[in-house]
Design goal:
alpha+beta
């Protein structure tokens, strides 16, 4: 490595200029890479682990005429905000359950940056209080805002995947409980 000898202010300015000529492009490339990586991370869909199961129909264990759905559960503010955004599709036997942590009135949900229609069910203690069928995707704001009357959870499923209506009591259990 070469040691730089600085004997005057002019030599200091020359050394600083040389250093900036090296560091400037490195900093610029770093900023560009960081911006692209950040944008990529923000637009990646979240894939949460399946931790719950929804059984709709005659009972548990599932019987003829019943439907079973594997559910991902969104609980943190970041998970709740991202939801099913940026995904290409949702299998008919899968869904997302949003735990709101409290009973909320006029719960707002929208389909901004969701790529496919969904059925949205607002639940209070596992009872459907509001149902929105075939909520359409929205890629530009302003988007329609769907409001549930009251809910402590919200369930999103593929449209028409389950015959769920207002007043239905849903059987949602952690996977470990559902297997027992």
């Amino acid at each position: 490595m070469k040691t730089l000898k600085i004997s005057s202010k002019k030599d200091l300015y020359v050394a600083a200029f040389k250093l900036l000529n090296i560091l400037g492009p490195v900093a610029g490339v770093s900023i560009i890479i960081g911006t692209v990586a950040s944008g990529y991370i923000q637009t990646r869909p979240q894939n949460l682990p399946v931790t719950h199961i929804l059984t709709k129909g005659d009972g548990v264990p599932p019987t003829v005429g019943s439907s079973t759905f594997k559910l991902e559960v969104a609980s943190t503010p970041e998970q709740l905000e991202k939801g099913l955004k940026f995904r290409a599709s949702l299998p008919r036997d899968r869904g997302m359950l949003f735990n709101l942590e409290a009973e909320i009135y006029n719960v707002p949900f929208w389909m901004y940056k969701v790529n496919f229609p969904l059925d949205i069910f607002y639940l209070k203690n596992n009872v459907v209080t509001t149902a929105v069928y075939n909520a359409e995707p929205c890629h530009k704001t302003p988007c329609p805002i769907y409001k549930g009357r009251v809910a402590n959870q919200v369930l999103e499923l593929a449209p028409g995947a389950a015959n769920i209506k207002v007043g239905d009591k849903l059987n949602i259990q952690p996977l470990s409980s559902a297997k027992e």
